[in-house]
Amino acid sequence: MDRILHEKLRCDIQQKMNSNLDTQEKLSVVCRLVREHVPKYDWVGFYIVSSNKELILGSYAGEPTEHTHIRFGQGICGQAAEQKKTLVVQDVKKETNYLSCSPKVQSEIVVPIFRNGEIIGELDIDSHRLAAFDESDRAFLEDICDVVSRLL
Ligand code: SME
Asked: What's the predicted TM-score (pTM) here?
């Protein structure tokens, strides 16, 4: 991902975080901004960790998904939550523990959001392109999750 775009989006997002919008609106704006400016990001959404260790779909931009509640360990999202680390899947067809939202999706990145070392949510991005995510995407999205963690 382009460094200049990264900086610009980070700046825009930080500005929205400091606005009077409520938390839900802020998360929606992040999803929309990121999806609109990065064409390979086809679905962008936040999952929030519930008290019984489920990932509950919050704000998102893209097609509706049936996967609104995901248990830890289940799918790429659940595995990222269990392992407390960013997971990048370059070709979802090669994954056995994967929850498909659309046959168009070819690759995915899931970035945990932490507070005091505990996972409190995730940013999940699907792409219709194979191997859409590299180290620059990871760095950008981990940076965004760091900003967002102060909201949740
Ligand atoms: N593919 C995810 C499910 C969520 S959707 O991508 C929106 C997974 O395997 O956990």
From this structure: 0.96
Tell the residue nearest (CA) to atom 5 of ligand 1: 101
Tens-place pLDDT, residues 106-137: 999 999 999 999 999 999 999 999 999 999 99
Count Cα atoms within 13 angstroms, Cβ side, for 58: 22
pLDDT beyond 80 at 52: yes
- pLDDT higher for 151 or 74? 74
At residue 1, the pLDDT reads 77
Angle of CA points 7, 108, 61, to nearest 5°: 65
Token digits of residue 148: 């967002």
Q: What is the CATH number of the domain that holds 44?
A: 3.30.450.40
**CB 76 near ligand 1, within 6 Å:** yes
Does ligand 1 lie within 6 Å of residue 122's CB atom? Answer: no
Ligand 1 centroid vs 116 CA: distance in angstroms?
A: 25
What range does the domain containing 78 cover?
3-148
Q: In total, how many domains does the chain have?
A: 1
